[in-house]
Amino acid sequence: MKMKKLVTMLAVSAMLTGMLAGCTSGSEETGTTTAKETTAPQSTEAKKETESSKDTEAKAESETDTAMTDTEAKEDASTGSLKGKRIAVAHISMYDEWCTGVYDELMAQKDKYGIAELNVQDANFSIETQKKNVEDFISQGYDAILIDIVDSEAIKDTLDKAYDAGIPIVAFDSGTDWEHLISHIKWDHAETGKLTAQWVADYATKNLGGKVKVGMITYNTLAHVKVRGEAFTEELESLLGVDNIEYVYKQDFDQTREGASNITTNNIAKPVDVIWGAVDNAAFGAKIALENAGAKDTIVVSAGGWGAETFNAINDNNQYYKAAVAVPPAGIVQYSYDTLEKYFAGDKDIPKTQDIELKIVDASNIADYMGYIK
Fold first, then answer.
1. For the chain, domain boundaries
2. What Å distances lie between residue 288 and 53, 120, 162, 253, 325, CA to CA?
3. In CATH, what is the architecture of 189-326?
4. What angle do CA 304, 218, 54 make, to 5 degrees?
5. Which residues form a coiled coil (predicted)?
6. Residue 234 has pLDDT above 70, yes or no
7. How far is CA 217 from CA 25, 250, 264, in A?
8. Greatest extent of the chain over all pairs of C-alpha atoms, in Å
9. Rounded CA separation 172/353 (Å)
10. Mean pLDDT in the chain?
11. 86-186+331-354 falls under which CATH superfamily?
């Protein structure tokens, strides 16, 4: 899916946020972009998965200056040390709207930093593909590598090769404890689970007498996404008490909306108050199944989402899709570029981890987000 570039316009105060959302997989194809090539690569499977929302998708008029409250200060402090640099990006996937949003922001923000060439490769969630991509970056002599890691352990030997070649590595989204990593730009995935649990607990208290029946569509293949589900259950139990919660089902899905929809359909006869989706494709798959069944009294909450489809569903007061944790792609990209800029400027005090801000989006604050879509 080709994505329009985002234009920097909105004020910092419009964004007090921080949702896939870790990314999920597509096919095994890869794509390349450079400073002169700005069309986002996409796998065949990804095209199929996103086709239904293609006509309605609209990109934000601005994310770059609103993802963090200190954005303007960061721009003023720009050192220019990325000017003329060749940067490579080993992306985990181009599967969903958040992941392609990251791509859009990589392209939209590169000129501000004076980056001479930007090469984005899509691993489509294959560690072997990602390792080959990084090895290619090394042989092509890129100045730095940004990476959203598929497998935090399996990638280490390849990162060692980059280190030996003198190429700095910054991870974004999913990371690794590899010792030479300059920094990991991320969000707190446990906080993602906690925010959704707090929302569900409040909903149950106000609407269900403080008791709730929950269906969970998890994605435990990715360690950082697994943390979301663990934090959700722990926080929910601390707020409502174990005796007031019934987990009707907890099932892993296969990354596709069809898979999430099938899980929901197979459990449709069981009374469920809230379906929790680990990522937005899980949440929207559940929504589709509920719509097809004409279900009543069940809502869906997403632990990670961003973009037109997510915001429109909430703004339109969709019967099922009610809330999501928002994770701005602009924030994760800006922190990544800023970190590389500091590195090349000789900064020795770069934090090993850096978290962007998160906030849950629902009917109470959706107006703050509708400016991001047309």
1. 86-186+331-354, 189-326
2. 13, 32, 44, 15, 19
3. 3-Layer(aba) Sandwich (3.40)
4. 50
5. none
6. yes
7. 17, 6, 8
8. 62
9. 10
10. 83
11. Response regulator (3.40.50.2300)
For 250, the 3-state DSSP assignment is strand
The pLDDT of residue 75 is 45
pLDDT at 78 (0 to 100): 55
The tokens describing 165, both together, are: 């070649």
**pLDDT value of position 220:** 93
- pLDDT tens digits along 175-185: 899 999 999 99
- How far apart CA 166 and CA 373 sit, in angstroms, is 41
Helix (H) or strand (E) holding 48: helix 44-50
**Cβ 109 vs Cβ 89: under 8 Å:** no
Q: Which two tokens stand for residue 145?
A: 């590598």
Q: Bridge-partner residues for 215, per DSSP?
A: 249, 275
In the predicted structure, residue 136 carries a pLDDT above the cut 80:
yes
The pLDDT score that the predictor gives to residue 29 is: 36
Q: Do domains 86-186+331-354 and 189-326 have the same CATH topology?
A: yes
Tokens 């946020």, located at residue: 17
Tokens representing residue 326 in the block: 């928002």
- Residue 87: its pLDDT value, please? 98
Q: How far, rounded to the nearest angstrom, does the alpha carbon of residue 271 sit from its chain's CA centroid? A: 30
Tokens encoding 22 = 């870790």
pLDDT in tens, 355-367: 988 999 999 999 9
Q: What residues are paired with 6 via a beta bridge?
A: none
0.85 exceeded by pTM: no
The DSSP secondary-structure symbol of 319 reads: S
